[in-house]
Amino acid sequence: MFKELLQFKVAVSLCSAFGGALALPGNRTELERALKIANKSVSECSGPSGPLTWLDMTDEWRDGRWERVSNGQQVTFFNWSKGQPNGGQNENCAVMRPHGGWADNSCAKSFKVCTLCKLNVPVFLRLRGICEAVFYDDRFVMDGDKNKKPHFRGYYRSELYYDSELRTWRLQNTGDENTHALMVVGSKSLSYPIGRNFWKFTHGFCGSAAGEVVSLTLTQCKNGEEFTCNDGACVPLVQVCDRRAQCRDQSDELDCTLAIVPHGYQRTLPPPSSSEASDGSFEPTYVYLNITIASFYAIQSVGNRFNVELKLRFIWMDPRLKFKYLKDDRELNILQPHEMNEYIWVPEISFIDSEGNNNSVVDSKTKITVEKLGSPEEDDVQRSREARIYRGNDTCIRVVRIYNLWFRCNFNFFYFPFNTDYCTMTFQANKNTKNYVKLKKYGRGLWYEYADQLPKYKISDISFEENENPELYSSVTATIKMEHLFANEIMTIFVPTTLINTIGFATFFYKWFDFQNRMVISLTSLLVLSTFFSQVSTTLPETSYLKLVDIWFLVSIIYCFVIITTHVIIEYFHEYSNPSEMASKKLEEYPVENASVLRSAASTDVERSAGAENAPRNSATEAKCHQPAVFRDPYATPKKIDKWAFRLVISSYVVFSIIFWAVPIWQKFKPDSIFM
Ligand SMILES: *[C@@H]1O[C@H](CO)[C@@H](O)[C@H](O)[C@H]1NC(C)=O
Ligand SMILES: *[C@@H]1O[C@H](CO)[C@@H](O)[C@H](O)[C@H]1NC(C)=O
Ligand SMILES: *[C@@H]1O[C@H](CO)[C@@H](O)[C@H](O)[C@H]1NC(C)=O
Ligand SMILES: *[C@@H]1O[C@H](CO)[C@@H](O)[C@H](O)[C@H]1NC(C)=O
Ligand SMILES: *[C@@H]1O[C@H](CO)[C@@H](O)[C@H](O)[C@H]1NC(C)=O
Ligand SMILES: CC(=O)N[C@H]1CO[C@H](CO)[C@@H](O)[C@@H]1O
């Protein structure tokens, strides 16, 4: 019996804090027994007909249907006084009066009644937070009353009772009157020492000076399995800090920082290595990288850079730290912002070759989770708040943040548009040399779906390697193979230029003396080609060296030029005169060797002119004519030039094309042999 007027809710939590519930007699025998205990306190608790104690039942949910508050069971035994219950919906709680009659009563805060609890006696209690068991006990048993309030007796050297002069609870060392602590009665409605309370010691205690307040927990919760709410109720330990309040006072979700940072922890120092050799050398702290490339947003070969979104995770252990309230699901163990920013060491990784030379940062977009690997330490009653504590060498700390970065890359355009480029992203430990912090791949280390649809490039391979270089800082490099997609260039550059060149070659099929048309067409081809070249050049990356595509254009233009030159040469050897003049000239000038050729074409003309105008020379002519008739083609030279130039130009063009296309194809198969 707690001889103190309390609100209904407070009474309920008081009884549950002692491991029991409000009393509710279930039959007449029990009623007699309860009344016998309660009746002793009639003078403190009520007048002759006022309410004496609260009963463990309510009809709050449905009027007239009474249920137990502690377990929800329906109540079957009643001992209502005459005319009761009469409060309807306004009176949802019940009290027992002196003489044993029951009445319904309002649960409102202003109604205060004494409390009779049904407890499992003897009530054993544990006092948590006693870090030096020299003066006080950590175990107590409820042992009668003192100053009209319960008295708790320690096992060996202390007692806990209500000090009626100081009007507070007192933890007293039995050997020395001056060694004691007083409970700081705050604004809490429950002024019992049960649950978590602050105590002021008359002497230095647990590292605090005399007069400082220390949190102590008086609890009957199961050690190592249950958590004591601030009001003394018990909830399973796994439900603490699970983002759902189970305690009535929500205290299980208070103070949910995960990291326990020891005194002297310096967040600028990397974690010490787990093993130190006898000669003083030590292993570095390993930081494992696990990177997911979410997407390549852009590859700007002209700007020599590419844009990538990375999900960067790094994982490490810090044996200096301890962690509490860790859940099986890692994603629930998130460090709070002030913990990651102010308490713990977080490795810093710089992105070499990124634009702006960015570092990894810890900000609002960063998530740090903790994963437990081993089992917790044994429960420590010296801690006021129960918790499962995990050692730092048994837990992984994991930082996750998404970065959107531009990396620089030197694209090689010699093979453009058939180029395959290798760009790198280097992740380097910052601020700590490789003797202290070493970066490692976590498994494969780098993950990418190869699913990006980039307009010009295809990511065909990514390798991820730890660098074994003699550099001072440890680093890991991802090498990305980017293949330029050339279908577009084939369609817009190579096919049209080949067609125009073909048109240029086609002028050889015109009559050889058709100089004018040949010139018009081939000059037009040349003009189109050069315009095309200058237009395409503006869209291509600027380089100091020649690119394959430049060579292609250059050669195409040269071919057009050669064709035009050939036509001019042919024209040069094309002699214009009237045909008979030509014929006689030819006959005089050229000794006849084989006249069977072309005789039919020219002989009639020759004979006619010879016979009509040059009779005296007839005999000579005839003499000549007796030899086999001979005629030499006056156009043989231009025709020959035309024929051979055509063959030469076409065959060399074919040879050039074969060599030209062999280069990129060869480069595709042996992409590492870049000789530019
Ligand atoms: C009354 O209830 C208690 C506990 O529920 C039981 O032990 C006792 O036998 C009951 N007495 C009668 C008379 O039913
Ligand atoms: C309880 O106390 C009241 C008044 O103090 C008395 O009238 C009544 O008989 C007592 N009942 C029992 C069962 O002791
Ligand atoms: C590493 O990344 C992969 C891909 O995202 C993921 O499946 C894996 O769980 C990650 N490992 C760790 C320890 O984060
Ligand atoms: C990288 O650095 C630049 C300039 O220093 C800054 O503007 C940018 O926000 C940084 N990017 C990231 C992802 O931190
Ligand atoms: C962690 O350290 C403790 C002592 O500091 C040691 O007993 C335990 O075996 C270590 N655990 C692991 C996984 O190394
Ligand atoms: C109203 C009523 O029935 N009261 C009874 C409750 O129980 C006590 C003790 O058994 C009786 O004395 C009352 O008469």
Automatic annotation (TrEMBL):
Superkingdom of source: Eukaryota
Membrane topology: Multi-pass membrane protein
Region annotation (Disordered) ranges: 603-624
GO MF term set: extracellular ligand-gated monoatomic ion channel activity; transmembrane signaling receptor activity
InterPro entries documented for this protein: C-type_lectin-like, C-type_lectin-like/link_sf, CTDL_fold, LDL_receptor-like_sf, LDLR_class-A_CS, LDrepeatLR_classA_rpt, Neur_chan_lig-bd, Neur_chan_lig-bd_sf
Coiled coil regions in record: none
GO cellular component: membrane
UniProtKB keywords: Disulfide bond, Membrane, Signal, Transmembrane, Transmembrane helix
Pfam families the record matches: Ldl_recept_a, Lectin_C, Neur_chan_LBD, Neur_chan_memb
PROSITE patterns: C_TYPE_LECTIN_2 (PS50041), LDLRA_1 (PS01209), LDLRA_2 (PS50068)
PANTHER family named among the record's database cross-references: NEUROTRANSMITTER GATED ION CHANNEL
Name of the protein in question: Glutamate-gated chloride channel subunit beta
Gene this protein is translated from: LOC108673774
